[in-house]
Amino acid sequence: MGSRASTLLREEEIEEIKKETGFSHSQITRLYSRFTSLDKGENGTLSREDFQRIPELAINPLGDRIINAFFPEGEDQVNFKGFMRTLAHFRPIEDNEKNKNLPASEPLNSRTNKLLFAFRLYDLDRDNKISRDELLQVLEKVDVEQKMSIRFLH
Amino acid sequence: MERFALSVERTKTWVFCMIFLLLCCTTGKCELKEPKPTDSGIFETVKPFDSGIEEPQPFPEEEYGNLPVFTMDYARIQIPFEFTLWVLLASFSKIGFHIYQKITIWIPESCLLIAIGLIVGAIMHSVKEEPPAVLTSNVFFLYMLPPIILDSGYFMPTRPFFENIGTVLWYAVVGTLWNSIGIGLSLFAICQFELFEVQDINLQENLLFASIISAVDPVAALNVFDDVGVNEQIYIVIFGEGLFNDAVTVVLYSMFAFLADMPSISSTDVFLGVARFFVVGIGGVLFGVLFGFVAAFTSRFTSRVREIEPLFVFMFSYLAYLVAELFAISSIMAIITCAITMKYYVEENVSQRSCTTIRHVVKMLATVSETLIFFFLGVVTITTDHEWNWAYVMFTLLFAFLWRGLGILVLTQIVNPLRTIRFSLKDQFGLAYGGLRGAICFALAFTLGDNINRKNLFVTASIALILFTVFVQGISIRPIVEYIKIRRTNKDLNTINVEIHTRTMEHLICGVEDLCGQWGHYYWKDKFKKFNDRILRRILLRDNTAESSIVSLYKKLELQNAIELFDTSMGDISAAPSIVSLSDEKKEATRPKKKFKTGDILKMHDILAKNMYKIRQRTTAFTNKYSLPDDSRTREILIRRHASIRRSLRAESFREQPAQNISKSLRYYSLQPGGSLESALSLRRRSPAIPEEDLLRSSGASPRSSSRSLIPMTRLNTITEQTSPKEPPAAAAHPLATENRSSLRGRKAPVATPRRHSSNRADEDEVFSENQAGAEEQHPPTQGWVPENRDPGLNEAGNPLLRQSSQRSWRT
């Protein structure tokens, strides 16, 4: 796996991703190995089935929504860049002073982008509005999870 | 009119105050008389003891051979009598404080108790009386401290605690070390000055003293924080720190006490000290966990001896404490871990009544203990021999304050980057300022061996420190906190929205963590959960079904549901239409309008409620220290809600029972006065094919309640599908039929919708019915065994209930 990673992920790509998402070098490498381990078809992209093969994600009530979040509109495959782009939303928020010299677009893990990501989780039909039904559906999903008693030590 | 009422109130309170004060003084004075009898054998009012029949009378002229009609033998009852009087006195003080509410807002109870103790101590001192030897080390550590710690451990909010456990341990261990060594060294530096006449205190003794006074006492600090209501993070850190720094204190204390005799400290001693710390800490935890598991396992078999179930909780935790004391390891950690471990499993195994009993008794013992401790602190302050040295005492105060502040600052700087919720400067100030010392440090000072030549000085200094921190810091912390606006727990913020979305986000994060293969917080939780389910629950729980926790969860959620409903709609259904009208469009109007509204409301609220269990967790965890996790308000709301719902639906019922009767009858489900278990069961069996019935019977219990709860439960889930509005009416036919049949027995209104209500209430009622059982005069014959029989049924009944519905929802 190590050799595969090194041949398929070039240094300049790592640099690009680092600049775009803010992940560190080791994090990117690690996530790349995770990406390749998920990528059963070995074609450098992940499809929805690959995601669904993760067992914990399958039983997570928000699993399919999370998966959907990785796939931008209309596409069915996500490459590593897209993968990292989505994951970048989950990095901790950094202080603004460090990012003053960043390009015009806000970093992917800024508050606004995080909120946008969360919004898109609720907004299933991607009309940029959360209808009451969509909200209800989220609640039901979480409801189902509870019956499976995943959480404990309440 | 209002002013008149107000003035009446005021006069009443003043009258009570006067009476209370009088009482205090008289009880205080009375006790002064009592201890004297041991000095002389003869009283003016006491005849010779009633052994007068056997022995020759000292005054042979009078009453030879007569039976003494009235004798008094004080010496026999002296100890328990005095103990009771002291407890009563302290409790009267507590009552007195709460009569005039405003006092406790500004002055924490601990201060007031110490003040009263000081007064009584002054009285006793002026009549040259010795206070009871309560604050000796043995009595304190073996009898007075365990209940308090048990209370802290039992009601510890586990979730925030485990989320913050790194921070807590960091502050507890490193913070205490920092404090001790800092204070010790600075005091030693002070001692070098000839001016202050304390040159004979060497380094070890200083360090010993410092280790005593550096421990933050949870009792005092939380007393203050509860009233002020600081935010969850500070609360849990102070809480945990106060509890866990005992390990460090024990080690340091024993190490320095040991070394105080020795002329010099070698490096091996330091190394041994570190090793001892680990032994103490980890040993305490291990013992606690061991006893916790044993207790949980025992509670598995107590289904037939319900009356003594609470005993096991207390005995095992006390045993853990004592065994840890035996090995001189941290008994506080032992009892805390025992309580934490035990609570989860025991509360599943025992009956509802036992659960309530345990909680009440734990709280009661803790409150009594705490009251007594503070009280005696005040008393003993006056009556001990003090050695006052201005310099030493002042510098002690100064250094204690200084080093705590510095310690918090430095430690927070180190630990903040590792936390998601960081401590702001204000939080840090709150942490530092909230470092009150309390009775533990005092008791430790008392246990100093007499080989320490300046023992009295140390005692004086520690008392001074305690009084200073409790009074000055305790009283001032409230205005300061309000002034600098530390983040307070804002319970109003826990709206439904917040809770739901927090939950959603948690799921999201968990999912992404799994996606990354990352071992996040939730990963460990998940692992433990699996271990818990697979192994621990099988062994320790009597009826181990995975959903049993869901049942209790559901109950909790229903409580929250009730609260929300009450808050939003004033307990009146007529306010509900606003919600209903929103969700109205898709529903067909096949159902009668009344049922429709309430059904939909319930559906909405149930959906929301099921995601809100964390509300209850958070808010109840941080209610007042002196009350149980607050059930009473929810119960009351629940009752009112029931009453109002029933009122609004009365028109459709063919019962003419008054609201009171209905509410009470509801609690005992099918069992009406004069009813019997078997007849109720047979009644149920006669009802048409209700699929859940065989599940019920297979579970073995006789959960009449669950039949009622079962049906509506599944109906609830079908409703949430939003696509089958026709189902509810169909399902409604069943309970309708059942109800019709049982209506003769005086059951609840047969309308379908109230079924749903009552189902939800049924579960809650099971929570509360035992609590209410005592208050119900209506069904004395059934009270005795209906709840008890229901208890084993509770878990089992709930499970098929939820299993059923979970299957349904899976199918959707």
TrEMBL record, chain A:
Q: Which InterPro entries match?
A: Calcineurin_B_homologous, EF-hand-dom_pair, EF_Hand_1_Ca_BS, EF_hand_dom
Start and end residues of each EF-hand domain: 26-61, 110-145
What GO molecular function annotations does the UniProt record carry, in alphabetical order? calcium ion binding
Q: What is its main location?
A: membrane
Q: Gene3D superfamilies annotated for this entry?
A: EF-hand
Coiled coil where? Answer: none
Query: What's this protein's name?
Result: Calcineurin-like EF-hand protein 1
Q: Recite the lineage of the species.
A: Eukaryota, Metazoa, Chordata, Craniata, Vertebrata
From TrEMBL, chain B:
Which residues lie within the region annotated Disordered? 692-812
Q: Ranges of Low complexity compositional bias?
A: 697-710
Q: What is its main location?
A: membrane
Q: Which residues form the signal peptide?
A: 1-32
Residue spans crossing the bilayer: 105-127, 139-156, 168-190, 234-258, 270-298, 318-340, 361-384, 390-411, 431-449, 461-481
Task: Name the membrane topology term.
Answer: Multi-pass membrane protein
GO BP terms: namely:
regulation of intracellular pH; sodium ion import across plasma membrane
Q: Does the keyword Lyase apply?
A: no
Q: Name the residue ranges with Basic residues bias.
A: 744-759
Q: Where in the cell is it found?
A: Cell membrane
Boundaries of every Sodium/hydrogen exchanger regulatory region domain copy = 575-681
Q: Name one GO molecular function term.
A: potassium:proton antiporter activity
Question: Where is this chain compositionally biased, Polar residues type?
Answer: 715-725, 802-812
Tell me the ranges covered by the Cation/H+ exchanger transmembrane domain, including all copies.
Answer: 88-482
Q: Which Pfam families match?
A: Na_H_Exchanger, NEXCaM_BD
- Provide the Gene Ontology terms for cellular component: plasma membrane
UniProt keywords (A-Z) are: Antiport, Cell membrane, Ion transport, Membrane, Signal, Sodium, Sodium transport, Transmembrane, Transmembrane helix, Transport
Recorded family membership: Belongs to the monovalent cation:proton antiporter 1 (CPA1) transporter (TC 2.A.36) family.
Which NCBIfam families did the record assign?
Answer: b_cpa1 (TIGR00840)
From the Swiss-Prot or TrEMBL record, give the protein name: Sodium/hydrogen exchanger
Give the source species: Cyprinodon variegatus (Sheepshead minnow)
Instruction: Cite the source lineage.
Output: Eukaryota, Metazoa, Chordata, Craniata, Vertebrata
